[in-house]
Amino acid sequence: MAFSRAFMQLRPIVSALGRHKVATLLIVLQVALTLAVASNALFMVATRMVHLSRSTGTDEAHLFVMRSSWAMGLTAGQIDANIRADLDALRHVAGVRDVIASNSYPLGGNVAGMLTTRLKLTMEQATRPQFAMVYAADEHAIDTLGVSLIAGRNFRSDEISTIGPNDKLKTPGIIVTRDLADKLFPDGSALGRTVFLPGGPSAIIGIVADLQGPLSITRSSDADSVLIPARYIDPDVVIYLVRTDGSATHEVMGRAMQALQQRPGLHVIDPKLGMFAMDAVREQAYATDQSVATLMSIVCGLLLLATAGGIVGLSSFWVSQRRRQIGIRRSLGATSGDILRYFHAENFLIVSSGIVLGIALAVLANSGLMKMYELPRMPFYVPLLGALLLWLIGQLAVWGPARHAAKVAPVVAIRTT
Amino acid sequence: MWGYYVALALRSSGRSKALTALVVVLLAFGVAACMVSFAVFRATTSDPIPGKSSRLFVPQIDNFGPTHTYQNEPPDMLSYRDALALLQSRKARRQTLLYPTQWQVASDNASVPTMSLHGDAVTADFFNMFDLPFRYGSGWNAGDDAQHASVLVISRALNEKLFGGRDSVGQEIRLDGKVFRIGGVLDDWNPKPRYFDIGTYEAERAFDDAGDIYIPFSRATDMKKDSFYSSCPTAMGTFDVSQWDAYLDSECVRIGAWVELQTPAEVQAYRAFLHNYAEQQRGIGRFAWPTNVRLSNVNDWLTHLKVTPKASSLSMLVSACFLLIVMVNVIGLMLARFMRRAPEIGVHRALGASRASICRQFLIEGAMVGFVGGVLGVLLTLLGLWSASALFEPQIAQLVRADLSLVAQTVLLAIVATVVSALYPTWRAAQTQPAWQIKINP
Question: Which residues contact A36 (CB under 8 A, 6 or more apart)?
């Protein structure tokens, strides 16, 4: 009812606005620009937030990473023996649930040790083979990482071999992530099938639900990991992933460090950068995304406030300019509710035209940003949500001035000033 | 007259306090958002070696060919073979080869455990080309390069750690177990962006700190130290590094080259030389594709590497949009403010004020509002920069600082933005018909 009464007034509103063309146009323009910028910015915040709150699939809360260089001059055999000794020592540290030695860790980034490979479906495959990131693992990997095995079996201890940085990947059996399994065999028949690593054929013996690779920036391949049953013998560096049993992580970290230093002269561990909990890794990996999201949210908030402020300012001005007209309408029988509705309807009309223009601008801006910053296409509901927000802000902003207008007494009509 | 306009502006601001406050606050936020983004942008795009950046050049040679290059861009680094050829040709005033790597560092100082430290393998000219400041001693000479000398230059921080900051020239330390003699100790040197030894893959690390150790390129090659960045035109992009001699001979790129050229004629000549060299290699059958070489100076090189973080340019873009919206806003509010004073303008005009003087009056009023907005904007900018560490990654946030020029620019931007926004409202005010306004009010 109130709505229909408000819209009865559309004609007079439009003709009144015709007398304030520039001011009306300014608000329309402002709403349009705000919608264009805010919807793109909010979309960016949303995509970043989704991106950075992805789970790695591991038990991040209880994981920490130790990164150690080896003393000079150790042979591959000595390094292998030392890794075994370290694993044994770390497993006996109080508070440690399980440990593995690997070449990299989730979200660790493209640093020395990161291994990638391509998996062929047939030996002769001519098309580009499937990309994947490799974790050296053993029978403790699934428990240490806290990932869940959804099909097949874990590695057995007698399957674990060794591999060096210059060796071709070669192993009879691998465990892959569900994501990778589905990409290799979209029909879901991955378990037990054979794929071809650079060094030869390998059967998929197990599938884990989810395990992110060291990278967080590949967009499509972040979740495509392969576990190979091998200790990675790199003369430069070894990485231990340690899962605690729930006791205070930093205390376990201290004890783990002591355990490695039981045998002096073997490890070169940077006191600051050599050991870090998974949440620190996550923070660092997503620092840029976090800062973009925070910045965009702040600017968006300011933008909407500025627009609201502008609407309040101009509406107040209009109200003060039209005091006489309002008085006349009041003396001719308009209720104060009519006046209130008049200004709300007027605002709705202006904001709506701004929104129409703004949606067009938003789509345009999005396609520009897609080119410059490789952003995904913005779904259409984002500017529509922005439009709803702007309608709401417009109505809230005009509420104060409109109430002011509704209070104008009819007697104003016959006053001379 | 000017003083009178200022007084008028103050009086009118006093009359419409809320409107004035709104304009000031809006401007302050708009300008502050821009200036905070600009301060970050300025820090991330600053010239790392001002005064010399137009004289230092990176040569690139396409030894990968179309199947292994992206959009026909030659690789960012050189193969060992090409790098050595450019070094030995000595066609530039100075030239250096370099690549970043790391060593295990041990000394006789038993209180410092063995450390794994980053640094670069460089040639003798490196220190002069990049203006490295020395605290003690100096770099080495071409003779040391030729003799594969076990000499090194260490950073001030490492000297503090190992020798307590004393003059350690002539002392010995061990890198990967090999004994090296310290030839020089650097003073603080940490160019941002770290332009001299980054590859494309690592552009996100362009704001990391410089390393602690510099040893002769020839010696590092003897030690089979590989570059952090290595890229090979093979299916996997890697190479079996255990076959070291084959690796050196391969087309794998991993070495950065820099040349110093003084005049445009020298640049021209070097470009021609580079082209000829590549042509010649094509002639002997190494490249089966059109010769593709580049020679970029420091700033072009940084642009090519895209070191400016996306967050930085994006926030610049968004805050510029924010300021634009604020300006549209201010136009509307200024219009309201000036039109409200139509009767006053009418009287002024009737008493003989020209349109030009009305314009002056209102533009001065705009500038004053802008100035106040600018001052508030400076405060907000400082607040924004102070919290930059929460907004940007630490290695970027620590580069961002406020200075006098930033403050001046903030105020100036606010004034310009307001005056520009006030242009249309002023023009409207000047159009006021005196006769309409001095009639007894309708």
Answer: A358, A361, A362, A364, A365
Q: What is the pLDDT of residues B141-161, one digit of tens each?
A: 999 999 999 999 999 999 999
What letter does residue A222 receive in the DSSP assignment?
Answer: T
Q: Which residue has the tokens 């395990």?
A: A211
A400 forms beta bridges with none
Rounded distance between C-alpha atoms, residue B350 and residue B347, angstroms: 5
Q: What is the pLDDT of residues A182-222, one digit of tens each?
A: 999 999 889 999 999 888 899 999 999 999 988 887 778 88
B376 close to B28: Cβ distance less than 8 angstroms: yes
B176 and B295 part of one domain:
yes
Q: For residue A204, what are the β-bridge partners?
A: A174
Give the list of residues 6+ apart from residue B21 with CB closer than 8 angstroms, or none. Answer: none
Q: What residue numbers bound the domain in which B37 lies?
A: 2-47+309-440
B311-339 pLDDT tens trace: 788 888 888 999 999 999 999 888 888 88
Tens of pLDDT, residue by residue over B91-143, are 999 999 999 998 989 998 888 888 889 999 999 999 999 999 999 999 999 99
Tokens standing for residue B382: 């400082």
DSSP designation for B50 = T
Choose between B19 and B25: higher pLDDT: B25
Instruction: Name the token pair of B151.
Output: 């000499």
Cis peptide before B193 (omega within 30 of 0): yes
The whole-model pTM stands at 0.81
The answer to whether the CB of A363 falls within 8 A of the CB of A383 is yes
- Final residue before a domain boundary, out of B280, B305, B330: B305
Q: Which residue from B minimizes the CA distance to A314? A: B333
**In this complex, do A310 and B393 lie within 8 Å of one another by their Cβ atoms?**
no
Q: Is B116 in CB contact (< 8 Å) with chain A?
A: yes
Q: Are residues B204 and B289 in the same domain?
A: yes
For residue B180, give the H/E element and its range. strand B178-186
Domain count, chain B: 2
Q: What is the largest CA-CA distance in chain A?
A: 104
**B169: closest CA of chain A, how far (Å):** 25
Residue A282 C-beta-side C-alpha neighbours within 13 Å: 17
Contact: B236, A198; criterion CB under 8 Å? yes
Q: Are residues B17 and B107 in the same domain?
A: no
Pair B258, B379 in one domain: no
Tokens representing A201 are 């054929």
Cα–Cα distance measured from residue A107 to residue A289, given in angstroms and rounded to the nearest whole number: 13
Contact status, residue B108 vs residue B162, Cβ threshold 8 Å? no
| Residue A362 binned pLDDT confidence (cut-offs 50, 70, 90) | very high
pLDDT of residue A351: 93
Residue A230: pLDDT band with limits 50, 70, 90: very high
Q: Where residue A84 falls among pLDDT bands split at 50, 70, 90? A: very high
pLDDT per residue over A101-154, tens digit each?
999 999 988 777 788 888 888 888 888 888 899 999 999 999 999 999 999 999
> Do the Cβ atoms of A192 and A203 come closer than 8 Å?
yes
Same domain, B149 and B212: yes
Do B188 and B226 belong to one domain?
yes
Mean pLDDT of all residues belonging to chain A: 88
Which residue of A33, A44, A71 is in closest CB contact with B114? A71
Q: Choose, out of B307, B329, B340, the residue to mutate when testing the contact with A (most A CBs < 10 Å).
A: B329
Integer-rounded Cα Rg, in Å, for chain A is 32
Inter-residue contact A188 to A182 (CB < 8 Å) = yes
Chain B residue at shortest CA distance from A305 = B26
Q: Are residues B69 and B193 in the same domain?
A: yes
Please state the rounded mean pLDDT for residues B234-250. Answer: 80
Examine the predicted complex and report whether its ipTM is higher than 0.85: no
Where a domain ends, among B286, B305, B324? B305
Please indicate, yes or no, whether residues B25 and B66 belong to a single structural domain of this protein: no
